[in-house]
Structures are given as structure tokens and as C-alpha cells.
Amino acid sequence: MVVGDILELATRYRDEGADELVFYDITASPDGRSVDRSWVSRVARILDIPFCVAGGIRSVEDAEEVLGEGAEKVSINSPALADPDLISRLNARFGAQCVVVGIDSQTVEGAYHVYQFTGDPSRTRNTARLTLDWVREVQERGAGEIVLNCMASDGVRKGYDIEQLRAVRNLCRVPLIASGGAGAPEHFEAVFADARVDGALAASVFHTGAIAIPDLKQYLRGRAIEIRP
Amino acid sequence: MTNGVAIIDSGGANIASLELAMERLGVPAELTTDPEKLRAASHVILPGVGAAADCMGRLQKAGLVETIRGLKQPVLGICVGMQLLFDSSEEGDVQCLGLLPGRVRRLPDRDNLPVPHMGWNQLEFNGKTSLLNDIRPGDYVYFVHSYAAPVSELTLATTQYGDPFAAVVRRGNVYGAQFHPERSARIGAQLLRNFVQL
Question: What does the record give as the active site (chain B) (predicted)?
Fold first, then answer.
């Protein structure tokens, strides 16, 4: 996506009442390349809501650049798996509130497994780490928020993986954001009511206009889910 | 309205956001650690992110503690910047600026509520202040914190997270907001606008 499109989308979501935006460069990690981050300050200029940058953050210096441009948080996924101490270093430098750990997870033979390099299908691999163990470890290392992307649900629009999110919620003492599977307003209601997540992330249903954010919020408020109007 | 807002360069990660928020309001604001500029500014904002002890350490290192204590114009502490206005903080057991009485404490670990408290939450009003003009009880603002100041007679707005804590405080020219107005959409912009009009 070119910068002009990013800014247009950011403006649209701001005006529609999104509570937070996450910008993913999902190709940044597998390539081992660094990202052109000139867009971050341009987004920061427009947005009056918090936003998080994910992808290509491999060092304290990378994070410093992104936060210095005005992002609230950085989200790390593959680099945290390669170098778990990065979580601790980011926590020590910026505080837990800046450090989001993204986890891509799916069921393998009855257990949840963490996947790495999910931005590139040819390199995506099962790390053999168990998701629940990793959720514990990233908290001990100082993550301030966890985004759990349930890969089997992702892109299918049949609802969030409530069962898996519940299992993670039970041992997650920091804010937990659900990702993967949103296709209808009822899915958002279910994930808040049944998995007690702190936030629900979605991309395609908003990008395509299948769900309008103001309508979704009105729906959720009508179902007694506490959410900013 | 203003002959210049000074933002104290306390080294936190949210300073860029705050500068951009002032820019969106069309209010000139200068990031500085110069005591002369702070004294000359019409309004002073003390932002803060990270640990209270680190932030206090940076203010001490910059030789700003007495300067801030002596400011007569409106001063607004944001997030950890608000916490620093109090006598002390449990976080790192640090003595703070002592402009407001009381001790900042860790949010209670109960009701399965995640800490940090990170996200949008509602304001309830305790008192009147022009800092809250055109802001209503029940309005949502954006919080990111693990410590908070207790509710007292200086509290103008509270927020509930396990227990109620002080979301907006005031004594004389000294104001504090525990949330991040620079990231609280329309409500946050209104608070900053109200502040520079004090």
C-alpha cells in the first residue's frame, strides 16, 4: 500500500471512531529488510487516537525510531521468537505499555502451537513452542499487551477462536487483543462476552466496508458491551 | 490566548504525540528544558511516560525541580507527569515534586483486571473546572498506566478500574490528567484547548 493510501485509510478510521489502529508490515520480518518508516510521522500527524506499528522491529533502536515519530506502541512477533530478550530490553527502555507481543497460533495435534514468519507462506514454520507457555513467558519478560492471532480463523470470517482465546485469557494478566476471524457483528459480541478480551482486531471486514465501525459500535452497545461510542 | 506553551522535555516516548496534538490545535508549543523558557511560557505541560523514578531523575538531572515547583502559570501534568506532581510514588519509592499532597500507588490487582490499565475508559465528575468545559460525565478517554493517584478533595474527575482513581486533579494553577489527551480523540483535544485558554 502506498503512503497516500495509508493516510487516507487512517483518516477514514479515525473519523469512523476506531479506538486504535495497528499498522502491519507483514513482509518486513521474513525479508530481513528494514522498513521505510517515513509514513509513521505522517500518520501520527493525522491521528488523535493511539496507534501501534508492527513488523520489522528487531531492536531497541528500531522501536525508538517508531515511538519517536509518534506511535504509542510497537508490536513484535517473529523477532521476539528469535530473540526473546528483546521483549525485556524494550520493556526496560520504554515501559510495558509500549511493548505489544503478537502471537500467531494454531492447533496441532490437540495443542496450540506458535508459528513464526507468517508474513511469508514459504517460510512460515511451527516453532514447536506451545502457545500457552509462550504467553506466560512474554508476560514474565515484560510484554504490556498480547495480540493473539488465531491462524485457522484468520481470513475465514467465521468468528474468532473463542476456545483458544479463553485458554489464553485465563493466564493473561495484561490486555489481550483477539485477532483473526471477524466476519459479523455477532463475532465481536461473542469475543468480548465469552472470551473476555480487552480488544478485538479486524482488518478485511473494515477495509471492504462489510462492517461499518459506527454500526458495529452501536450494535455492541445495544448488547451491553462497554465500548466508546 | 497564549504567548507560547512550553512542553517540558522529560524524555518520555509520548512527547511527539503531544507536540502533534498541539500542532493540530494550531497552538505554538516549544519542547524545552530551559528554566528561563519555562518561566516565560504562558502555559507549561509536563508529559511523562515510563517509570516515575526515571522521569524524576531526568527532571533532577536537568535541574528543573525547583523551577517547576515555582511556576505560577497554569501547569498540566499528563500521565506520569501528573503522578510526579504528588508528594511521592510507590513506583520505585520516589519523592516527587510535592505540588499536590498524597502518594501515587499501584492499581489494585483484583477482579482479574489487567494491569497496565490500557484503553478507553469513562470520566465521572467530582467537581467543576474550566479544564473540563464541554466535556461530559461518561465521556471516554485513553489511559495507559499501572499507577494512579488516590481520589481526594483535589480530584475533579474520577475513573473506575477496580477502584476509582483520580483522572483529573487541580490545586490552584496546577492541573493533572492521568489519561492521554493527545490520544483521546475529540475529548482530549477539548481538554488541551481548555487548558491553553486558562
Answer: 79, 180, 182
